[in-house]
Write a structure and sequence with these properties.
It is a single chain. By secondary structure, the protein is of the alpha+beta class. The chain has 4 domains: about 55 residues, Nucleic acid-binding proteins (OB fold (Dihydrolipoamide Acetyltransferase, E2P)), CATH 2.40.50; about 60 residues, OB fold (Dihydrolipoamide Acetyltransferase, E2P) (Beta Barrel); about 70 residues, Nucleic acid-binding proteins (OB fold (Dihydrolipoamide Acetyltransferase, E2P), Beta Barrel), CATH 2.40.50; about 70 residues, Orthogonal Bundle (Arc Repressor Mutant, subunit A), CATH 1.10.10.10. It contains 5 helices and 18 strands. A 5-stranded mixed barrel has the order 1-2-3-5-4. A hairpin with a 3-residue loop joins β6 and β7.
Length: about 325
């Protein structure tokens, strides 16, 4: 037998060396089980113990009786404990120490990278020199575990974890609950209301169930519901603006609208149309105004013009 980091092995307690701990043997080699890594009562010489093997902070092979959340080659969803800008993310594995998810495994865009508290699907692997690291679980690992989305999920709101996020969209494992591991889904970029991080928890609506059992998702409400919410948001925004106007209209670039209101240009135009039909707003050039504010502005302008004309006329009378 040989020691393999990331695995649990049954080993014999060979000897105790104070103040360090116990040396465990596989019959050929020994590994240290530090006192701090004991679970339960102290073992006796020649007892057999189950120990997980890992590398300590000085890259020495060590043993622990604590149970990790995953072992070598296994897949698990782990929580991000910390983020290092040059190294990557450190993941909780249930041992009082973290597993490194290297920077090379993370998205190139910082906006798409995990933050502490996010949870990522990973597989435990060895790096080039044998240390334990996490690798992002890709479609080939996840697809063996997912099940087809039930037809009853269509148009339902679901929750899940982002497994991969790109400019074209974000892939999600939707919670399976008591049914199983989960369902594979995609939120296209046009259906995202903001950038999504790898490992982020997200709520989305099932818009379509594909023949392969995967689900297309949207973070937006159905058009008839979203139109009302978007219209209310725009109306509230206008009411807070000085003069009740904003430099956005149905001519504004889609990227600007997405950044400002978190909705697509189509959704923005639908909301404006609703407000205009209700007589709540008006448009003038590339600006949109509250109807009352625009009317007040026009009234003030007319009054000012009349006053100016009156002043000119009076001045002419006085000259006579």
């Amino acid at each position: 037998m040989s020691f393999v980091a990331g695995t649990t092995q049954t080993l014999r307690v060979a000897r105790e060396v104070s103040p360090y701990g116990y040396f465990l043997s596989d019959g050929e080699s020994e590994v240290l089980l530090h006192y701090t890594e004991l679970v339960g009562s102290k073992p006796k010489i020649d007892d057999e113990v189950e120990a997980f093997l890992f590398y300590d902070s000085e890259d020495r092979l060590a043993a622990t009786m604590k149970k990790p959340l995953l072992q070598l080659g296994e897949l698990a969803r782990l929580q991000v404990a910390d983020v290092h800008p040059r190294l990557g993310c450190f993941l909780e594995i249930g041992l009082g120490r973290q597993l490194l998810l290297p920077l090379s495994e993370l998205p190139e865009s910082i906006d798409y990278r995990p933050l502490p508290g996010d949870e990522v699907f990973v597989v435990m692997k060895h790096d080039k020199i044998g240390r334990l690291v996490a690798k992002i679980a890709f479609e080939e690992e996840l697809s063996e575990l997912v099940f087809p989305a039930p037809a009853s999920w269509n148009n339902q709101w679901v929750e899940g974890w982002v497994t991969k996020t790109l400019q074209l969209g974000s892939f999600v494992i939707i919670d399976g609950g008591v049914v199983g591991f989960g369902v594979y889904g995609l939120i296209p970029s046009s259906e995202r209301i903001r950038p999504l991080r790898l490992g982020e928890r997200v709520k989305a609506r099932v818009t379509f169930i594909r023949e392969d059992g995967r689900a297309n998702l949207s973070m937006a409400q159905r058009k008839e519901v979203g139109r009302v919410e978007d219209a209310d948001r725009i109306l509230a925004f206008l009411k807070e603006r000085p003069g009740g106007g904003m430099p956005y209209s149905d001519q504004t670039d889609a990227d600007i609208l997405k950044q400002k209101f978190g909705i697509s240009k189509g959704a923005f135009k639908r909301a404006l149309g609703k407000l205009m039909r209700e007589g709540l707003i008006t448009q003038k050039g590339s600006w949109t105004y509250l109807a009352a504010a625009e009317e007040a502005n026009e009234t003030e302008g007319t009054a000012a013009s009349q006053l100016e004309a009156s002043g000119t006329l009076s001045e002419g009378v006085d000259k006579k």
